[in-house]
């Protein structure tokens, strides 16, 4: 499939089977991420491929965050929240955690490091789609919690930016895509004073 087709037909696929994803396909997806644009060639992305019992790393981190958000350990609510959170990574046979490690350099703008990693994630999602795999980029408040850095061995200036849940799509049709027409969101500027009121 060509790039235009891939961009327009890719969808977030949350329901996948537990069928094993070949390591070669995972490596192809990871390599696609490394081709994202990044200022000053800092390559600020880090990838963690969680398979099998390795998914428990994320499950344990999510459980700790859930307990904290439920007011601390000990209550039945906290235990239920922890168990529910612990099972989330088991929804897919592969979870790729993607993190940013901003470079400490006077000419490196931290926000641009984040942008590069977001671009890497998009590359990875498009590559997964081109390979016929289902993928969804999951985030949410627990993603950015300090406990994620702790569990993934990241430094204080680093940040987990999301989890790509990956697998063979389950039966069913991909959802229809819908976007606001670009014309409604675009201003064409042909003169420097065009935006002045």
UniProtKB/TrEMBL annotation:
CDD domains assigned to the protein according to its UniProt record, in alphabetical order: YdjA-like (cd02135)
Instruction: Please report which protein family the annotation says this sequence is part of.
Output: Belongs to the nitroreductase family.
Q: Which InterPro entries match?
A: NAD(P)H_nitroreductase, Nitroreductase, Nitroreductase-like, YdjA-like
Q: Which domain of life is it from?
A: Bacteria
Q: What is this protein called?
A: Putative NAD(P)H nitroreductase
Identify which cofactors the protein needs according to its UniProt entry. FMN
**Under which EC number(s) is this enzyme classified?**
1.-.-.-
Question: Which keywords appear in this protein's UniProt record, sorted alphabetically?
Answer: Flavoprotein, FMN, NAD, NADP, Oxidoreductase
Q: Name one Pfam family in it.
A: Nitroreductase
The family database entries (Gene3D superfamilies) matched by this protein are listed as: NADH Oxidase
Q: Which PANTHER family match?
A: NAD(P)H NITROREDUCTASE YDJA-RELATED (PTHR43821)
Domain named Nitroreductase is located at 7-167
Which species is listed as the source?
Paenibacillus cineris
């Amino acid at each position: 499939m060509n790039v235009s087709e891939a961009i327009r037909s890719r969808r977030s696929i949350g329901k996948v089977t537990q069928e094993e994803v070949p390591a070669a396909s995972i490596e192809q997806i990871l390599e696609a991420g490394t081709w994202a644009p990044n200022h000053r060639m800092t390559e600020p992305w880090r990838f963690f491929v969680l398979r099998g019992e390795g998914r428990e790393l994320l499950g344990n981190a999510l459980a700790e965050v859930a307990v904290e958000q439920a007011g601390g350990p000990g209550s039945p609510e906290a235990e239920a929240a922890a168990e529910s959170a612990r099972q989330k990574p088991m929804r897919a046979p592969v979870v790729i955690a993607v993190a940013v490690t901003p470079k400490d350099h006077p000419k490196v703008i931290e926000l641009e490091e984040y942008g590069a990693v977001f671009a890497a994630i998009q590359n990875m999602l498009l590559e997964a789609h081109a390979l016929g795999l289902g993928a969804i980029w999951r985030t949410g408040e627990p993603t950015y919690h300090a406990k994620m850095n702790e569990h993934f061995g990241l430094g204080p200036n680093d940040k987990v930016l999301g989890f790509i849940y990956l697998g063979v799509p389950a039966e069913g049709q991909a959802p229809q895509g819908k976007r606001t027409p670009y014309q409604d969101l675009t201003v064409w500027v042909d003169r420097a004073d065009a935006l002045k009121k």
